[in-house]
Amino acid sequence: MKAIFNSRIIDTSKPLFSSSNRAFCYGDGLFETIVTADSRIDLIGAHLGRLKRGCDVLGVNFPKELTEEFIRESILSLKQENNLQGNTRTKIQIWREEGGLYSPESNSVNYLIECKQSLKPFYRSINNAGISEHYKTHHSPISFAKTMNALNYVLAGKEMKDKGFDEIILTDGQNNLSETHIANLFWAKGNKLFTPHLSTGCIEGVMRNAVIKASQSIGIEVEETQKPASTLMKADSAFATNASGITWFKHVNGKQFSDPEELIQPILKLLLQP
Question: Which structural domains are found in the chain, ordered by start?
Answer without folding.
Answer: 2-117 (3.30.470.10), 123-271 (3.20.10.10)
